[in-house]
Structure formats: C-alpha cells, structure tokens
Amino acid sequence: MAVLPDPAASRAVLIGTSRYAHLEQIPAVANNLSALAAALCAPGSWALAPEHCTVIEDPGTAVEVLEAVRTAAEEATDTLLVYFAGHGLVEPRRGELFLGLTGSMQHRSYTGLPYGTLRDVVLDGRAGRQVMLLDCCFSGRVLGFMSAASAEAVIDQVEIEGTYLLASVPDTSFALAPPGETHTAFTGELLRLLREGVPGGPELLDLDTVYAQVYAALRAKGRPLPQKRDRNTAGGLALARNAAWAPPGFGPPPPPYDHEPTPPSTPYGHEPTPPPTPYGHEPTPPPPPYGHEPAPPPAVPPMPTWSPMALPSPAPLPSPGGAASRGRRRAVTYGLAGALVVALVAAGVPLAMSWMKDSSKDDSGQHPSESKSSGKPKPGPTSGYNAAAKGAVVNASTKSGGTLKFTSRNDADYWDPQRTYYGYIWNFSRYYARQLVTYAPKPGKDGAELVPDLAENVAKVTNGGKTYTYTLRKGITWEDGSPITSHDIKYGIERIWAQDEISNGPIFLQQALDPGLSYKGPYKDKRDLKAIRTPNDRTIVFNLPKPNGDFERMLATPSGSPVKKEKDTKGKYTNRPFSSGPYKFGTYHPGKSLELVRNTKWNASSDPIRTALPNRITLDVNDNEQSRAQALSHGDYDLDLQSSGLSADAITKARSSSDLSARLDNPYTQLLLFAALPRSVKPLDNVHCRKAVLYAADRENMQTASGGELSGDIAPHMLPPSIGGSESSYDPYETRKLRGKPNATKAEAELKACGKPNGFKTTIAVRNNRPADVTVAESLRSSLRKVGIEAEIDQIDGGQYSVTMGAPEVVKKKGYGIVIYRWGPDFPTGQSFLEPLADSRFIQSTANTNVAELDDPTIDHLFDTAIAEQDATKAGSDYAQINRRISDSAAYLPILFQKSVLWRGSRLTNVYTSDLWQGGYDYVSLGVSE
User: Fold this and answer.
1) Higher pLDDT residue, 342 or 237?
2) What is the mean pLDDT of residues 624-643?
3) What percent of the chain has pLDDT over 70?
4) What InterPro entries does the database record attribute to this sequence (predicted)?
5) What is the pLDDT of residue 479?
C-alpha cells in the first residue's frame, strides 16, 4: 500500500545546471527547479515545507552541492529526495557518471560532480528511504551512444540499497530539452503528472505509478524512455497525492490506469520523428509544418516471389507520432485492415457539403446550414466498391436527425484543439471547434481550396505577404450564446505558447509568428502577443516576421481555434472544450466514451461549412480488434474514428462478398513509403552508387511485399499526386515505364561509374515492430543482390528508430546506407512534405529529419522562394523543381504512393473521401439514415 512520506521528517534537494561556461546552455533546467519545488511543496501534493526543499541552481563546485545534500541527509529521518537536471558526463575508462556543473568541460569528467560521491553522502544520512531522480544523459555528448554493457555499468553504480532511482533516459539515448518547451522532456512529463494526476488512479501516486505514467507519456511522443531501479519496497513510496483522484462513487466511472509501462494506445500515427534537441543543442532553422511517417501494412498480399517465408502477421501498433519542436509531428491515424495501413487526416479542413439544400428543421428548431452553391451536383451512387474515393458523394441526402455512431481503439490524445496532434481528432474536432478559414467541403482534390469559416472571407494579404487581415462573420456564437470575437481567436492561438501547461500540439503557428519565442504565453506574460492585433471585436490582424504562403493552412488546423478566456481551464480544458461549432460536449468518460449533443446556440446561417445533420454523435472506445470488427460489420457502429476497425479476416471476408465489398474504399493517403540513402555512408556518398540502388530496386516486388495494389501505387518520384508540384508524367528512372521492374543494365553501368563494378556492401535499417516494412526490406535486399550489392538488414527497436535515424553520426558509424521510412504532410504543400526531408538547414546532430543528408544550396533557395510565394501555382512550380533535383541527387528511393482501405457503414449518408484528410472521410459532412 502506498505511503506518503511525512513532510515534516523529509527533505528534498533539487539541483540543476542550466548555464555552462564550456557546454551548451539548457535554459529549461532553471524552469524545472522552480516548478518542481512548487509542485512538491503544494498543499495538495506532498505539502513539503518550503524550508525543507533546497534548490541549488547553477552550482559552481561539487562542495556546494555535497554540503547541501549532507545537511538535508542529516535532517531527514523519513525520506530524502535528490533531483538533478543538466549535462551528464561519463568517464570513458571506468564508465563512471559525473553530473555537469557550470564549469564542466567535455572529455574532462573531473570537472563535474562524481555521482558516486553524491551517493555516498546520501547513504550516510539518517533517512530510511531515498529517492533519486536523474534528468541527464548518461553518455552525454562525450561518448555518444554507449554499448549496452557500459550503460548497464553506469546504471548499476547509481543503485543505492533501499532507494528508488528514476532516470530520464535508457542507456542509448540523450536526455532532451525540446526547443519551444518550458521544461526538459522527462521533467515536463513528471510535472504534468503531479499537476493533472491520473484519472482512475490511486489516491497516492507511488513511485511505480509515477514511473509507469511518465514512461507511457514519453513513449507516446516517441521520446527516449525512462528507467527505474528500486530496492526493497521503495516503489510503494508515494511522491504526491493524485490530483485527479475522486472517492469511490463520485463522478463518472474513471478509466483504468496503467500501473506498468506497457506500450500505450497509439494514434496509429506517423513515424514518431526524432525527438527534440538533446541537452545543450540549439535548434537549427525553425521546422516546417512537419511531415510524418505513418506506419504501413496493407492487406494480405500474394506471396512475394523473392522469399519462401510465410507472410508476416499484421504489424503491432506503432508508437504515436509526435514530439515537440522540430521532432513534433501530428499523428495521422491508420489501421491494420488486413495488415493494410489506413491513413487519415492532414490539416484543419472541409466541413460540409456546400451543395446541400436547406431542409426541414431538425429537433433543435434550427435549419441545417444553407447551401451557397447554385444547386445540387449530379446524384452520386448509393454504394459500390471505392465509390466514395472517385470524386462522388455516396448516398447523398439532406435529411437531418439520428445518432452518428463512431467506435475507436483509442480515446483522443487531447480534445483540446490547441493540444491535439492525432489526425483523426483534427477531423472530429470540427464538430465543436471552428477556425477563421478551413477547406472547401468537396470530394477528392477539390477539397484543397481554402474557404472562409469564422471569417467573412479568406485573408487580405498585404505587406509583401507578411500581414493577414480578417473580418469575422456576424452571428458567430459560443455555446452560451455570447459572440465569438477576434480576442477569443487571438487568445486561443496564444495558448500555444503555454507549452508547460498545454503542450504536445503543433507549434507551427508559434514558429511562424514568433520564431524567437519572445512571448511567454497568456498564463505567464502580462503582455499580449504583439504579432496578432485585434483593433475591434470583428477584426484580427496577423503580422509575420517573414512571408509564408502556407500561413492560412496553419490557421485552418485546430490550433487556430478560438478559446473563451473565461472558460479556459488550462490542462483540464481537454475534458470539456467550450464549443464554437454545431455540437457541444455531453457526457465524457475518459478512455471509454464521448457524447456530443446539439449546440442550440449555434447559428446555422453563420456557418456555410457544417451541415450538422445528426442530432447526436457518440464515440465508444474499444481496444478489442475482433469485437470492433464484429460490431462494425453488424452495423452497431457507422464507422471507425481512426479509419480502421476491421481485422485482417474481416477485410478478407468483405472483399470476397459483393455486398460487403461495396462498403470498402481504397483512396490515396498523401503518404509515401521510401528509403533514404544517407550521403555520409560510403559508398553511398557517391551519386552513381546511389543511382545503382535506384535502378536495381524491384519496386513491383516491394509493392507486393507491402500488400499489393491495395497498399498503393509504385512511386516514380518523391511528391505524392495530391501535393502541389507533383507531375504525373515525371518518370526520371523509367519506373512507371518499366512498371516498377528493375533496370539491371543501368544499375551495372552506375556501379562502374562509382568505381564498384562488382558491387558493394551496405546495411538496410528498418523498424523491428513493423513486419510489412521488414518484408519490404527483404524484397529490396533480394533485388540488390542481383547486381552485386550485398545488403545486411538491421532491425532496430521501433521505440528508438527515429532517435537512431535522427543522429547522423550514429547512421554513419553503423553504416546504414539505406533507411526505410514513411512520410506524410500536415497540410498538402511542398513546405510541409518536402522541406523536412530535403532542406540542408534541417540537418542536425539529433532529431534530424533530412535522413539522406541532402545538401543542395539550390534546393534551399527554392524552398525560400516557394514558402514566401502567395500564388500556390507558382509555389508548386518551385516544389516541382525541388522534386526534380531530389531525383537527380538519388538521395531517396521512392517506393509507394500509399493507399488505405476504409469501411463505410450502410447507414452513412453524404460520404466522400478528401485528399485534404489524407484519403479519410470528411466527418462533418456525414449524416445517417434510420
């Protein structure tokens, strides 16, 4: 049973070094100290007396630290807690850990505080229990990635009998200080846990629960995972009271909590991109609107011709995408429909059917929004295989009423529009959150048009593309009937700066408006954000430091949603966002169910996008794949929120039945399966050796390995068809001409040109938790062998894949000449898709997204030109040139323009897929027939 230490008989010493004379600075550490001290001393937490919590900031000598710890150790008779954040140094010969002080130097561990000495001082004290929290790199920047053996040696030396050690990172990772976030990654999650608590968890947060929750939160962001060491019963020692605890019988039934750090439910998202900067590294140029790498796996394929092995089982669910700053990425949902990736959503998007006529009043007494078009389109089909993916509206209807029923494997990451980075929540959130602009409610490619939502018109752009001015519509209201004003929109966007309170959402608006982070957020800064002006209640003006032609697309994401200041509950806002849309929150049981009911104060006449046909919308969370598939096929639910839901068996059954196959759609997703060829790895530093790989690759066989034609079309270049600048006729390596077959003659000629006529050896890196990716790697190895290129396959732990591939020095050292990846955009432009992969200014020592290390000044200049361009056609021309130069460099091997398989319930009306939603259905246009 958990026991809370007696605060009067306990002590805490918090040590942190943020300023260094010879190492990179870590400003977040100073924030860690003050916030953690406040959390431990809070009456509802541990209630430690302030005089019993010693804070040592930027210590200059080891003696300064050791004397303070010794004093606390002598005073404490119950529990002693010691915390350190800063650079971690490792003595290279003995593997001893040293803690960084202000004067510490690289390769000179004697300039730090020996951990062993600190341990001895703690052990010499009178406290019956000791808690050690270390937020630092064991390997640091001195040794890079250590071997498992050396790391374990360091871990062992930190163990103290009768104590509990919680370390921020595993043996092969850096500790992270994410740019744009107030705290370091590990401590930030610890503070969030102390502040928000664990719904459904115990009254006291014992150390094992703390570990499990922090572990799950960091894993969900693709960041390095903490480790623990405990002796005796230290794991049952409580660190604080649970802020979310409610007595039995009080309130709705809470969700279960994870006591052990099992892999969390994922958003089926993009490849978690490399985590943010390790301690000390400053970010290079601000990142773009971040692409993603969603995970694969398509429908049961025919047996690959290159291997006698049995087909892989569906891949385990990948870790969620998303971390912060450069590594932060929105998680696009896709499911394993027969091992077929089902990818969803991109940016804040189309919301309804502009062609729908006004119908009879619904039960709220309101009319659905009036059509702004001249009339109906031609009647669409009522069913049919792939019908909703062919530019038509399936089962078109203006009938309102009924309940639209969603099921999902997972709850939202956050319902808070400024925090969510799950793609399917971007889509769903439009039921209760509006933006200044959004996308046209039209099928397919036509949905890419930006249209006004809360604003009367799209922006008036002046000042060379740096000033955006909007006038708000009349009649736009909150769920309490009060008007939505320009100040509400500004406040909602300003919340993005409060990364210590409401982190994890996209930060591209922050980077576009305030790249220097001069503003501290609405909860701390007495000033407002100067980049946004509100001359009156209906006018809002954005002033960018430099032009960005995608700025309105950023505003069209949930990040641009208004928030009423009086209703902002900070971290708890996710449990009950205040609605600006046609629906508002009814009952919500986290992790179990959600009900949206009509917002009777919504004015249909002020909303030309949303039709709001259903009377009620429900979501039931069910992590049992077979149960979900059965419920969908039986019609208990209309669709899966994450665009998945059907098991492999269910998909196979559906495809073999004419009735059931008529409910399947197979749209493009804007996602690309490809391989990066890092230019630092010999002999791939030679363009002719890289071209030999491209010509030798049998992409037809890789398509089969990935899942056959349902998994996607063979990609001749790097730019998916629905992204501006993609050229359907561009075929630089005759990929389409040869239908994906290899060109051995040209491959052999390129091998001669690079001085390797007999071939060469290299290594293919691939995630070990995605069997479909492994089969693709096997296929590629088989085809390369035919021209003399021998490739070893290294299956890397899925949780560390992006960390490893995001460190060029590690890639070079390991000889990873070919890296299997998947990628997709937040919004469909070359800035969002291509820039993270090809701009040399995004090459960095960690969190690197330009895995191929493509370094071309012409490409960099073209990005600058394209991003500043307001004309989408002209920008597309620049991105087309960039795409061609990427092909010329042979830095990437494009494999598939991916597709997904979606299930369409028989009751659904107004169903169509949208390129803007990466092939997913446009949720706010849906209705149901009874």
Assistant:
1) 237
2) 88
3) 80
4) Caspase-like_dom_sf, Pept_C14_caspase, SBP_5, SBP_5_dom
5) 98
Q: Which letter, b or e, does each residue of 698-715 get, where b requires 16 or more Cβ atoms within 10 Å of its Cβ?
A: bbbbbbbbbbeebbbbbb
- What's the average model confidence in pLDDT over 829-857? 93
pLDDT above 90 coverage of the chain, percent: 55
Contacts with 127 (C-beta within 8 Å, 6 or more apart), sequence order: 10, 11, 73, 76, 77, 78, 79, 80
Predicted confidence at residue 908, as pLDDT, reads: 95
For the residues 357-372, what does the mean pLDDT come to?
35
Neighbours of 93 (CB within 10 A): 7
Mean pLDDT to the nearest integer, 185-203: 88
Overall average pLDDT of the 703-712 stretch = 87
Please give the Cα distance from 581 to 549 (Å, whole number): 27
Cβ(321)–Cβ(849) below 8 Å:
no
Q: In what order do the strands lie in the sheet with 53-57?
A: 53-57, 11-16, 79-85, 129-135, 163-167, 227-230
CB 2 within 8 A of CB 204: yes
Q: Which of 804, 817, 814, 818 has its CA nearest to residue 846?
A: 804
* Ramachandran bin of 912, using left for φ above 0, alpha for ψ from -120 to 50, beta for the remaining angles: beta
Q: Is the pLDDT confidence value at 872 over 50?
A: yes
- Whole-Å CA distances, 253 to 180, 373, 597, 714: 36, 46, 20, 49
Given a cut of 70, whether residue 284 has pLDDT beyond it is: no
Q: What does the alpha-carbon distance between residue 61 and residue 80 come to, in Å, rounded to a whole number?
A: 22
> 520 to each of 280, 524, 526, 627, how far by Cα in Å?
21, 6, 9, 46
Q: Which of 432, 372, 792 is nearest to 578 (CA)?
A: 432
The average confidence (pLDDT) of the chain is 81
Structure tokens at 276: 């943010």
Q: How far apart are CA 226 and CA 136, in angstroms?
A: 11
Any idea which of 358-367, 707-716, 870-879 has the lowest mean pLDDT? 358-367
pLDDT digits (tens, 9 = 90+) for 51-84: 999 999 999 999 999 999 999 999 999 999 999 9
Question: How far is it, in rounded angstroms, from Cα 97 to Cα 109?
Answer: 8
Query: What is the 8-class DSSP label of residue 83?
Result: E
34-65 burial string, b = 16+ CB within 10 Å, else e?
Answer: ebbbebbbbeebbebeeebbbbbbbbeebeeb
Higher pLDDT, 292 or 70: 70
Joined tokens for residue 370: 């009036």
What is the edge-to-edge ordering of all strands in the sheet holding 88-90?
88-90, 97-99, 113-114
- DSSP assignment string, 337-372: TTS-B-----SS---S-TTPPP-S--TTS-PPPPP-
DSSP 674-714: EEE--TTSTTTTSHHHHHHHHHH--HHHHHHHHTSGGGEEE
Phi and psi at 640, nearest 5°, equal -90, 130
How far is the first Cα of the chain from the last one, in angstroms, to the nearest whole number? 52
Written as one letter, the residue type at 208 is D
Q: Give the three-class secondary structure for 164.
A: strand
Six token digits for residue 906: 């028989």
| Identity of the highest mean pLDDT range in 57-66, 236-245, 532-541 | 532-541
Cis peptide before 678 (omega within 30 of 0): no
- Tokens 């010509």 correspond to 695
- Binned at pLDDT 50, 70 and 90, residue 246 comes out as low
Question: CA separation (Å) from 231 to 154, 341, 377?
Answer: 17, 44, 70
d(CA 823, CA 800): 17
